[in-house]
Amino acid sequence: MNVVDLRDFGEGRWRKVDDRPYGGGPGMLMKCGPWFAAVESRLAGTVPGGRPARVVMTTPAGRRFDQRAAEELAQEGHIVFLCGHYEGFDARIETLATDKMSLGDFVMTVGVAPRGGHAPHAPVPSRPRRSPGARLRATAAIW
Q: Which of 12, 27, 32, 121 is deepest in the core (most CB within 10 A)?
């Protein structure tokens, strides 16, 4: 698993990745420029098995991540998870996603923490569990 710090693609002196919503309103939105650059960097030259990568946006409005979704994603050669923060994503960022998924009916306040437990880490163990040759122990998955 590779974690990408969105600020590496931020704009300006402070590597800004957020902005106020166009037309006003409360909160902040994730800017689309840094997201497009970050996703393009992860997709560059990556077509394992001749299939394009799945780009999964985590959003409360998405399909529930359940066992069926885990089995489906386990078949993929390359998956990119987009995990936002603040009030959400600029709507243009949604065009990057091939799928939208929700982890459930709860709020995670560390959606973009570069080090530590956050949204993309939750589905990660499901992939090796579903891979041929994986052995499960009571305390760990080995692959």
A: 32
- For residue range 31-82, list pLDDT tens digits in order: 889 999 999 988 876 555 566 788 999 888 889 988 899 888 888 878 888 8
- 6's CB contacts (< 8 A; 6+ apart) are 17, 30, 34, 35, 38, 112
The domains located in the chain, with CATH, are: 6-142 (3.40.1280.10)
pTM metric for this prediction: 0.71
Can you tell me whether residue 69 is helix, strand or coil? Answer: helix
